[in-house]
Amino acid sequence: MNVEQLVNAIGALESTDALQCKLTLDEWKTLAPYLSMRFLKEGDPLMREGECERELFILADGELKVSILGNTIATLVAGTVVGEGTFFSGAPRSATVTPSGPGVAWGLNWDKFNAMTNKHPKLAVDLVSSLAAVLAIRMREAILVGNFT
Q1: How far apart are CA 112 and CA 31, in angstroms?
Q2: 41, 74, 103, 124: most buried, per Cβ within 10 A?
Q3: pLDDT(147) > 90
Q4: In a domain, 149, yes or no
């Protein structure tokens, strides 16, 4: 899997909380060295509730189940961002995220993000703006349904 497949997954997602990142393929290729590709296995959690690892993921292929206290609250598909809350806040993760089958996710950890920010500030701002929009939409949806867990 290459970064072009990630860009295609992001572009194909038609969700209210889709990453509306306007980066070009060449800009994604510039950012690719700061990302780590993770191959997902069914049932092997990508992240666990309570962890404090400052890394977010963009799902390039597959499907993820999001659960809180063992109860599935959402299903995420390719092109979706996950883990952005802990990435920015450093607070413990609020949910466990588990692949429903094989897949691929691209991760960005806080240290690599800082390095990227220093070397490519405009691209970092564009990415952060898109991630902030995802956070705002998800916060609004959580408020509307009363899901404050």
Answers
A1: 10
A2: 103
A3: no
A4: no
